[in-house]
Specification:
Residues 1-47, 235-256 are annotated as: Disordered. The protein has 300 residues and is of the alpha+beta class. 26% of the residues lie in helices and 16% in strands. Strand 1 (59-64) and strand 2 (67-72) form a beta hairpin. The radius of gyration is 47 Å and the shape is elongated. 9% of the residues are buried.
Length: 300
C-alpha cells in the first residue's frame, strides 16, 4: 500500500485549529478589540500622563546603586507589608550627605566651631552669569581719517615703497579709506592713477594748483578693486593638452580713458606754470641719496 501524503496547506490548517490560545492571550485580544471599537466610535478616553515625582503616581523614579530606576508603588507596598508580617528588617533609604558639616575646634579665641564643606567646591566662579552687551564702536570704514597737514591736493610726493619707489607723483585727493590718490602723470614717469598709504610717501614743498582738475566720480576705493583671476589648470587635467599662458591683470578701456582725461588736465597745469621745464624734469627724474646725505636733515 502506498501512503498518500496530505498537502502541506491542509496539514497546517488542521494544526492551527487544534492549537488553543492561552487565557491571558484571549483576554488581551478581547481588550484590544474593545479599544479598537471605542477608538472608531470616538469614545476612547486617554489616560493622563502621570508625574513620576508626585506621590499619587503608580510609578516613581528612584536612584539606586548608581542608576535611576522605575519602582511600582503598589508592588513595593505589598513587599513592605509582607516583610513586616514576617518580621524582616526593612532596607532603609540612605540619607543624603550634608554639603556643610559643623566641626568643633580646640583652642582659645577660635570661634569653637567651623563650617566645613564635604564636597570640594569649584576653583573658579564666573563674575557675571550673563556678560553685558557692549555697544559696537562702529565699523572701520566709519572711523575718522587723520591725514598729515602737508598732504593736500596738488602736492608732489616722493614714493618710498612699491614698484614705483623713488619716483615723484602728483597727489590728486584723499579717499574715504584714508589712502591717497596719485598720478604720475603716466606720460612722464609711468605712474598710473593708484592708491598709496600716507606713511609710504614724503610730502615735498612743491605744489600745483589742481583746483580746476575734474576727477570722475567713479574713481573711489571700489574703482581699484581687481577681479580674481582663474587659477592655473592642473598638470594632469585632460582639457589642458597644450601649454597655456597664465592670465595676467590688464587695465580696462574705461580705466585707460579716465587716466588720459586726468593726465591731460594735470599736464595743462604744468605747461602753464612758470618753471614748467624744471617741473617736467623733476617729475620724470628719480629720487636718490648720495654720500653724507640724510633724509631727516633735508628739506623737500
Amino acid at each position: 500500500m502506498v501512503k498518500v501524503k496530505e498537502p502541506v496547506a491542509a496539514k497546517s490548517a488542521s494544526s492551527d485549529a487544534k492549537k488553543k490560545l492561552r487565557p491571558s492571550k484571549v483576554k488581551s485580544l478581547a481588550k484590544y478589540e474593545t479599544k479598537k471599537k471605542a477608538r472608531a466610535a470616538g469614545t476612547l478616553k486617554k489616560k493622563p500622563k502621570q508625574n513620576l515625582l508626585s506621590g499619587s503616581a503608580t510609578w516613581k523614579v528612584v536612584y539606586k546603586s548608581g542608576t535611576w530606576r522605575f519602582v511600582h508603588r503598589p508592588t513595593e507596598a505589598k513587599l513592605i507589608a509582607k516583610a513586616k508580617a514576617e518580621g524582616k528588617p526593612l532596607a532603609e533609604t540612605p540619607k543624603k550627605k550634608k554639603s556643610i558639616i559643623v566641626k568643633p575646634i580646640k583652642g582659645e579665641k577660635n570661634g569653637e566651631t567651623r563650617e566645613v564643606h564635604t564636597v570640594k567646591r569649584k576653583a573658579y566662579y564666573p563674575t557675571l552669569k550673563s556678560p553685558k552687551k557692549h555697544k559696537s564702536r562702529g565699523l572701520f570704514k566709519n572711523h575718522k581719517r587723520n591725514i598729515r597737514s602737508s598732504l593736500t591736493p596738488g602736492t608732489i610726493v616722493i614714493l618710498l615703497t612699491g614698484v614705483h619707489k623713488g619716483k615723484r607723483a602728483v597727489l590728486l585727493k584723499t579717499l574715504d579709506t584714508g589712502l591717497l590718490l596719485i598720478t604720475g602723470p603716466f606720460i612722464l614717469n609711468a605712474i598710473p592713477m593708484r592708491r598709496v598709504h600716507q606713511g609710504h610717501v614724503i610730502a615735498t614743498k612743491t605744489k600745483l594748483d589742481i583746483s580746476s582738475v575734474k576727477i570722475p566720480e567713479e574713481v573711489d576705493d571700489k574703482y581699484f578693486k581687481r577681479t580674481l583671476l582663474k587659477k592655473k589648470p592642473k598638470k594632469n587635467d585632460s582639457k589642458s593638452l597644450f601649454v597655456q599662458k597664465p592670465k595676467t591683470y590688464r587695465p580696462t578701456e574705461k580705466r585707460k580713458s579716465d587716466q588720459k582725461l586726468v593726465d591731460a588736465q594735470v599736464l595743462n597745469i604744468i605747461k602753464k606754470h612758470q618753471d614748467k621745464k624744471s617741473l617736467f624734469l623733476y617729475l620724470s627724474s628719480m629720487f636718490g641719496l648720495r654720500n653724507n646725505q640724510y633724509p631727516h636733515r633735508m628739506q623737500f
